[in-house]
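Hi Y.,

Following your request, here is the sequence exactly as I used it, all 79 residues.
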Amino acid sequence: MRAALLLVCMLAGCAARAPSPEMLPLAVPCITSRPVAPSLPAVPSSGIYPQVQALLAREKLRAAYERELEALLDACAAN
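Below is the corresponding structure, written out as C-alpha cells. Let me know if you'd prefer a different format.
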C-alpha cells in the first residue's frame, strides 16, 4: 500500500506541466554596424564593350550589397 502511494505521488509529480519560457523584449539594437556600400567602378567613355563590362560589374556589386542589407533586415524582423 505504501509503495503504491509513493508511486502515485511520483507519477503525479511527473505529470505537472513545465513552465513555458517567457519572451521579453530587450533594448538591444539588432544591427551593430551598418554595412559599407561598395565603391562602384567608373564607366569608361571609350567603346561599348568596356562600358557594358563596367555596368555589369556595378550591377553585381549592387545586387550583392542589396542581398546583404536584406539579410540584416530579415535577421532583425525574425527577433
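The mean pLDDT is 83.

Thanks again,
Q.
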